[in-house]
Design goal:
about 675 residues, alpha+beta, Alkaline Phosphatase, subunit A, Gyrase A, domain 2, 31 strands, about 25% strand, globular
Length: about 675
Amino acid sequence: MNRKAYTDKILVIGVDGLDPRLSKKYIGEGRMPNFEKLIARGSCREDLSLLGAQPTVTPPMWTTLATGTYPVTHGITCYNRKGADIDEIAYNLDSRNCKAEQLWNVFAEAGKKTLVWHWPDSSWPPSSDSPNLSVVDGLTPACVDMLCATDSESVLIASEGVTEVSVHPRAASDGNIPCVIEKLEDKGEAIAGINGSNSKPLILKPEDGEHALSDSPFDVILTPIKPAEGWSFEVPAGAKETIFVFSGGFIRRPCLILQNDKGIYDRVAVYLNKKTAEPLAVLENDVYYKGYIDDNFRADGSVVKTARNMRIIEMKEDGSYIKVWRSFSMDSEDNQYWHPQELKKKIVENVSIPVPLSIVGGGDRTLIEKCMIPTWEHVGEFYSKSIHYLIEKEGYEVVFSHYHNIDIQGHMIVKFLKDHGHNKLSEDTYENFMREIYEQTDRYVGSYLHLLDEGWTLFLVSDHAQVAPEHEPFMIGDTTGINVRVMQELGLCETKRDENGNELYEFDWDKTYAVAQRGNHIYLNIKGRDPHGIIDPKDQYEWEEEIMTRLYSYKSPETGKRIIALALRNKDAVLLGLGGPEAGDIIYWNAEGYNYDHCDSLSTTYGCRGTSVGPIFIAAGSGIKKGYTTTRIIRQVDVAPTIAYLGGVRMPRECEGALAYQIFEEEF
């Protein structure tokens, strides 16, 4: 069924984690001129807000935006889903878990050439056979083709104090690495739950879960610096040599460390070997190098051309010491997450190899300023150029896009906007980083504004935002696993201990009545339903009542206030669009001020320094009123039907939202 269309071309600009409150703040500071232009040419609320659904985390909310349904209907109720037992979780970013029809399928089946660009959770694998539908990735929220990365993010240190090449996996989380290292500890075990390698990720200490995101470890490679010798061509006078190591040490490239005309060492030339005179790249000190192309090994042992970014972040003038950040490397050929697969080749040939993300930073100013933020700028440039190419050369008429820059960089920064005694830098410094990230987002959005003059309608939306909490969060609720501590203090669960009394990452099921897993879900340990059940099913109601009472009674020792805002039985959570078979027996939310940064929060939660959890909504272009401010509360479920109506197609089958008709040019 097609109806009258008020626009022929639609671009949804999805920005993960984009905060309407911070946007308003930085617009007021004159930092986001493109947002100002979009607002002036379109419609939104005065506060720019969209009333977010629950839970406030990436996969459920992008699925709500795509389907116009609440999580109780589409079935995506957190970042992960419950596994076979209540102490297990399973990866959830899979469109086959979505029980509601996606709007892009409606457009494609109505004859519109439709592109879905890295929309997380509900897009991959493609759920329509329509030849009009193209889908690029969506299996991770991070960036396009991240699952195809062949080498991890790393820091290489070359020094005259190093005697031999050594590779130290996941050995550091900031740039403060000694020049000479005798032993580096593998920090990867602490984030097993984050990287999905553990199906039973119990969280006994903060660094076991989300709290470790800002300290994500990276590899460290040590290589010696020596006088240049053995080269088959003449090298410049005074040149020194080192080795750049890739693929865990299996690929090694000789390098010359070179002087400028003042005798200062200021660049590194990377070579295929000592016989080839033409360098693969020349890295200048403190200059961000994009698109270093070289061979890399895949996991199966095959070799492929990959691209990565690099930057010399420290270099002694005498050439005796160099510190180089290197990004993930991205596969130029692997097209398994592109539909149709030939689409990747077109992008690689006409734009570039996909660009990697960066998750370094935390408390390290150099890594944040010089590596993380520029990398996400590069990701945005790649996305914009790719989408423009596909619109201009391939004729796409409807585009659903997603850019994850604010969310991931925010995870590295937002909790430091309020110093709880852990900051390595000042609160003001971290907020200036956040300003840079929002200015970056403004440039990305600005790259599409010319489409308004070409008959397009633009929708700027986000899934959620992030808060800087007033108080340190307590250990309950974590998207990455099963948080134990508060439930343990409430007498609801217990862990096993070894013969020496050391706590084990395993429940003592005889003493475990309920567990808190994922962001908001508590499961009772019920006989006959759960493998280790101890609660009689007839007592479930009373146990739910007791657990909710204990949750509300749990208070912060610092403030004397409760840390839980709301707790609901599964059947009652439908009031907020949750509940159903994919949700816990009890769903709860942390009180404002006691949040981690978003998933454990109600979508109306505010934080320090102008932060909030709610998403954004701005629409402009054909069919939309210009310069209009509505008082209508626009809900997240309203976005899909509003787009469908303007595009002249039917509503997605399970759609539960309503049209935001107040913003339409033509009276509804």
